[in-house]
Amino acid sequence: MATRKTSTDDLLAPVTLAVGQEDLLLDRVVQEVVAAARAADADTDVRDLTPEQLQPGTLAELTSPSLFAERKVLVVRNAQDLSADTIKDIKAYVDAPIEEISLVLLHAGGAKGKGLLDAARKAGAREVACPKTTKPAERLTFVRQEFRSLGRSATPEACQALVDSVGSDLRELASAVSQLTADVEGTIDEAIVGRYYTGRAEASSFNVADRAVEGRAAEALEALRWSLSTGVPAVLITSALAQGVRAIGKLSAARGGRPADLARELGMPPWKIDRVRQQMRGWTPDGVSLALRAVAEADAGVKGGGDDPEYALEKAVVAVARAARLRR
User: Fold this and answer.
1) Cα(319)–Cα(290) distance, rounded to whole angstroms?
2) At 313, is the secondary structure helix, strand, or coil?
3) Contacts of 142 (CB under 8 A, 6+ apart)
4) Which residues are paired to 18 by β-bridges?
5) pTM score > 0.85 for this model?
């Protein structure tokens, strides 16, 4: 029989294939299909199945004609782990699916269970990619899209600050965007993100470093004390200081050019090139050397080479801030 070609926008497609390992995106595919089915029929029957629950013959039972002709959504998780006999059942079904039933196959991708992927694609299944986000730039794009999907505006600096603060978990990032859009009116900027998430370890350590390399000693010390009081490990702070100073040294030594070109040359994202350019005003080669030595001494101090790690950090923060003002 002829296969049906399905639009990726058709949420009520007989077969939806979600491929990838990003749990949030996989769950959203399921939620969207269920919502669309229940909008068409409030009494839609939803079955969420694991490979252990979907045994040979189970699919035939679930897809058999109902006395009340109700709409169904059948969700099969970890489809790559299904038994060979169950995969045969699904392959036969996707060739002749039932219009009132939405079958959602969640598959991790890869070689395992690839025959099922190929069969679903050949049958014209609607396919949604749900790849694991592994790069900071991908998480930044995700945050921007989240704000746009909620009809809200956020500055590039705010999006980056949120990624720096919350980390790599997409569920937490999505939750943070949702919270900000619910609590804040107007455009969301970096200051707003800082007020909500400054207690995070990653955000706190980089906040200390940013203030220090900008020559703002008092603010850097205030941020340092806040970070330490909230339990941020001292080694994270020395690491952030070192990264901040090294970034200034790299960009100072680089040839001029567009952020995208410099990003490739230096291994930094373009947004960071713009930020470091603003921070490097007042820095000299001697200042970079002095700051790196101060950070190295602090690093040794917090790792057991000194009696007072907090004092070692304070000395480093002041030294970095002074180094940033040598030319001023």
Assistant:
1) 8
2) helix
3) 133, 170, 173, 174
4) 106, 128
5) no
